[in-house]
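TEACHING EXERCISE
Course module: macromolecular assemblies
Task: Read the component lines below, then compare them to the predicted structure of the full complex.
Student: A.B.
Group: 4
Components provided:
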Amino acid sequence: MRIHIFVTGGTFDKEYDEIKGQLYFNETHLPEILNLGRCTVDIDLDTLMMLDSLNMSDADRSKIAAQCGACSSDKIIITHGTDTMVETASLLAGAGIPKTILLTGAMVPYKFGSSDGLFNMGCAMAFAQTLPHGVYITMNGKYFHWNKVKKNKQTGYFEEI
Amino acid sequence: MRIHIFVTGGTFDKEYDEIKGQLYFNETHLPEILNLGRCTVDIDLDTLMMLDSLNMSDADRSKIAAQCGACSSDKIIITHGTDTMVETASLLAGAGIPKTILLTGAMVPYKFGSSDGLFNMGCAMAFAQTLPHGVYITMNGKYFHWNKVKKNKQTGYFEEI
Amino acid sequence: MRIHIFVTGGTFDKEYDEIKGQLYFNETHLPEILNLGRCTVDIDLDTLMMLDSLNMSDADRSKIAAQCGACSSDKIIITHGTDTMVETASLLAGAGIPKTILLTGAMVPYKFGSSDGLFNMGCAMAFAQTLPHGVYITMNGKYFHWNKVKKNKQTGYFEEI
Amino acid sequence: MRIHIFVTGGTFDKEYDEIKGQLYFNETHLPEILNLGRCTVDIDLDTLMMLDSLNMSDADRSKIAAQCGACSSDKIIITHGTDTMVETASLLAGAGIPKTILLTGAMVPYKFGSSDGLFNMGCAMAFAQTLPHGVYITMNGKYFHWNKVKKNKQTGYFEEI
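Instructor-supplied answer key:
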């Protein structure tokens, strides 16, 4: 049993640039996160892009779908910005990939010490091992089918629709 | 869908007593952990005891089993010290409770800033929602059937047997 | 012996708005910082403004100077954004206030878990008790006379000139 | 201007052994602390011992005094357990070393994420640069002459006597 993790960026991986006083992307923190979680699951990890999901294009989403289809594992976790996570989930569902695909992210950067990222990654790791094939979002301790979820932009919580 | 969390102590909830220079138990950090994870799952939370699991008696384990049987939810998470987690899982399995019961814990106290606790709680939250009835341990990103796992005392990792 | 702390904002007190994905000011973290440092020095604390120092006006600086002159203590710490800390120090020196005035700040927000803020506040607390009257900046473990320092914008370190 | 830091152990540098579930000493965290504080002061750093100060012997204290006398800098910081910090300060004062010597420590280990250590190190760094020759303890944002201080064992705060 192996899980393939594709990193696409999102708040999860944002850092603070102390010179410019801005948030930015450097390297992914996934290896550090898995290490902190003392995770012993066999993992393949690929960084596909490092994007704020508001800047993700159709070409980017197609690339994610192609990688999900091509990888050898049928259990996939995608780290993704929360703003357009539902759009990417929808495109992935349309691609009809016969695998269990979980999208997750964070509302607070992992490096800020008070992030939901570690909890969300735990949820994604577990759901990827147990849910049947399909495309899901996991946030806030729950999983949602790709076509039954929206992000509440006022509260930052994901809700069933 | 509700999940019942029973707190029994363990490294998870240990704190540092700055006057005595020792680790001790105060209140559980579960509410803080669920809040950090931005968890919106409906939760019932009960602290049954605050024990280092090396000090857990048969009477303590019987109390845990009775509470698991009596609560209204059929999805249960028990936070527990790692040293005797397998013994408690075994007793719970013997009790034949028709529910999904996950035991989890941490190798590093949640308050120490570098704990596996938040990740493990994410895993437990997800596995509790998706695994069939039975008694399981979740540590290191994996789940283990109660009778197919041991803690490797040299490495601190849980291993399938 | 009392020390008066005036809060003016700066990176020190910036937080992450998880809904908007931006840095912003809420309440000052100074009470939390002093508590973490287990500080028992008698402190008066006033928040004068909560500004990115790039947005600080002459009127703001005049207000700071007036408050420094008016307060009853002759030992003052001002938390301030680093970008224009030298300008404010210069204006304060021009005001000829017969007190020991230390300006300090942080390159990383206190809430991000990897901030220099706690160290800088320790330095400011100590220098305020020991330096003769004058206007100083303390950053990077050093103190600088107001007219002998610049911020190196490439490295983010303060340097003697 | 150089400051010589001598590490002797204490709560400051204690870590959590996740296998044994106990606190222990590994390497000092001083380089990490100075880096976090973005400290640019010229520092010489020597680890003399890694001891809980309750276990410090007269021979250990004599070694510290000898090193303080022998080093080339006249500004010295000693990190030390709080329980017998006053005893060591007294012995150092008796040695009549013509230097500014600051002893400091922490009530909570640096690695536990809620430590007073970074603040105390900031204070020590500043006091070492500004106080006249003598032996001092700095804790809780204050400095104390070696013979005018005691640790209140009930509260964990240092008090003037």
